[in-house]
Design goal:
The chain is an alpha+beta fold. Helices cover 49% and strands 15% of the residues. The protein has two domains: 319 residues, Thrombin, subunit H; 283 residues, no CATH class. Bound molecules: arginine and glutamic acid.
Length: 729
Amino acid sequence: MRASLKFKFIMIRNLLFLLAFTAVSFPVFPGEGMWLPSLLEKYNIEEMQRKGFRLSAEDIYSTDRPSMKDAVVRIGGCTGVVVSERGLVLTNHHCAYRAIQSHSSVDNDYLTDGFWAMTEDEELPNRGLTVTFLVRMEDVTERVLSVLDDGMDENQRQAAVNIISGILEDEAVEGTRYNAAVNSFYFGSEYYLFVYDVFEDVRLVGAPPSSVGKFGGDTDNWMWPRHTGDFAFFRIYADDENEPAPFSGENVPYRSPVHMPVSAGGVRENDFTMVFGFPGSTRQYLTSHAVDMLIRMRNPHSIRLRDERLAAMGREMERSDTVRIKYASKFASVSNAWKRWQGENRGLERLDAIERKRAIERRFAEWVEGSPERMSRYSGVLPGLDSLYSLLEHFTLAFDYGQEALYAIEAVRFVNDFLRLTETRTDLRQGTDPARLTSVLSQVSGNFFRDYHQPVDRRIFSMMLTMYRENIDEEFHPAFFGEVTTGFDSDFDRFADHVFSESAFVTPRGVADLLYVLEQDAAGPDLLEDDIFVRIVGDIRAVYNENVISEWNSLNDQLTPLYRLFVEGLREMEPERAFYPDANRTLRVAYGQVRGYYPRDAVYYNKYTTLSGVMEKNLTGDPDYNIPDRLRELYDAGDMGRWTVNGEMRVGFIASNHTTGGNSGSPVINGDGHLIGVNFDRVWEGTMSDIMFDPAKCRNISVDVNYILFITEMFAGAGHILEEMTILR
Ligand code: ARG
Ligand code: GLU
């Protein structure tokens, strides 16, 4: 009797549990959400503390006293964390990749060998790389909304928002060295002002060889179990007042008021973790129609186009080391989204995302019908979104092919940039000094050719155009397609031979000659029109920029106000629930717990990996798992110094934090506010979290600080870097 009652109780409990997790809504699951640091006190701190956070919301974000946020920086498109009082910044190897590559050559190959400055004098400056701190943020919704009224159409509204934003930004930074930006949240329902401090002299301090920092390469990218030592060090430099300054030999290491202590104690199951960083973009509120379009059309086409581009690059990279270095960064970035889209599609299908979104929409529609006020405010929302998406379908594929095929041709992008400069920089073009224009152009051209290998691009050219012609309506075909049909037997290969031998834009010599002529003749730009690549780009612009992009943008502009109402309605429908806004490159906190997961039936993935796993993968013989001899020596000798946890050398770990692109390099922080890892990826089964988060499968991947410390000290012999840091057990 007892037993059966208990059984019933368990059944009911399980059922409730199941219901809770299949609830028809946008439920906020444990781990889901990217929260604004200034709102933690209001929405999150209690839950965080229940999960094991032992500090206060003020410790994370405060404008009255130093707080954790003063150690978190945006660096390039990534995040980083300050880990010493001398402005030392820890981020990912893949975030430093371009910087490392730019200092590399075949003879001095820091990508392959790693780079370690043994003194501050040896630290390498990086043009264009900046580090940004958030000084403060402020809710300015009321002030922005006060200049808007319901009679405005979306363009008028946006214009008004821009004006008031400009005023608020100026006001916020007046008399300071800071920058400010007003960002929109929930599609323009709320606005926040962010004040930033930007440092321009950022130097490379250390990076492991790719065989550590990119161990597993593209084979392991977006996957767990992972063994990548994806980290690198930079240093912020300032002038003698400790203020930002352009690069100068006189600059000194930035004296950081706050740096994050490191905890080398190792993670355990269910430990509290938080990720503090600058996530780029998510689309949590997409409707079923949009998700359907993504799964069925956008992702599959984009994946196929990138298959071809990757094959074209890969083939030439295998043949020559010079090409390998030139294309390393391009290849990694093309392959990154290519692989994510594949995981995302599988994840969305497995979650039955379209049906779940439909269920939300049905519930929303019912709720709207529940009152006349709601009817008058929201009844147009879903039908409006639906009909806009129907119109968008037609342009979306062409839009994607423009990005992923036409502008995937490197020379098309180059010629386009080149022309834009000659067209828009009238200051340079007109007047008496054509030399000014040509010097800018020759710089652009120098940058382009440094990493260009014509055979790769020629192949991309013919493949991309062939696929464009096959998949995109004739009305969107650039005019030169006609010439290919009549003059080249419809064969883009033959056309490519012709174009690449005729155009001046595909060799440094050709461009140099062109610039010479331009410089002799101030009216020169007209002369460009005879070049075949200029005609090609002109045709592409004529059809793509004018017919596709403009329509696509205008339809998307019409989506915004509908989404604004949709999300406003959802929030009204569920007033007790804490919603979080889509990522938009502003500083956010995600929190969760260290936890393994079941990637598929009967298979369980442990929460951390170890150095033994590196050796295991190395034995497969796959070149992505090549390792430096020194690493094997240390492993064989059991020489891991102070950095083992229970006798093991931990490499990476996973936790249930909600992260996205831009969170790379984000500090992963324990319940005491100490750094335990650096975020760099998500697991394959959870890559759909930009659109739909699944607490059972979404995990962020971090490199364990123990591995960072071990590699830096024992492998690279750069123990002096550790001496700057505050390391706790
Ligand atoms: N997937 C990670 C991120 O989105 C790492 C990318 C770099 N690594 C690579 N093998 N391509 O950025
Ligand atoms: N690797 C990504 C980045 O560069 C982070 C992974 C993700 O998208 O979660 O930001």
